[in-house]
Amino acid sequence: MAFPGTAPNGQPYSDKSKITAGLLQIFLGGLGIGRFYTGHTGMAVAQLLTCGGLGFWSLIDGILFLTSNDRTDKQGRVLRG
Q1: Which of 50, 61, 71, 77 lies 20 to 30 Å (CA to CA) from residue 8?
Q2: What is the pTM assigned to this prediction?
């Protein structure tokens, strides 16, 4: 499924949603699920091993996913949404 337009960085938008990533990170961030969703497996494993920074890291990360317009997926494409 293609999404029209290009992101501010000149690349096409990601097929991943920032809303989905943010909600996954807030509710399942202790397991790194939001980061696994966006393809950032190294960060996801770190969150998994630290239980999402005892919840603080995953909560802040989830809020940033929802409010920031420059979060990217593994390929460096800006998340749509």
Answers
A1: 61
A2: 0.87
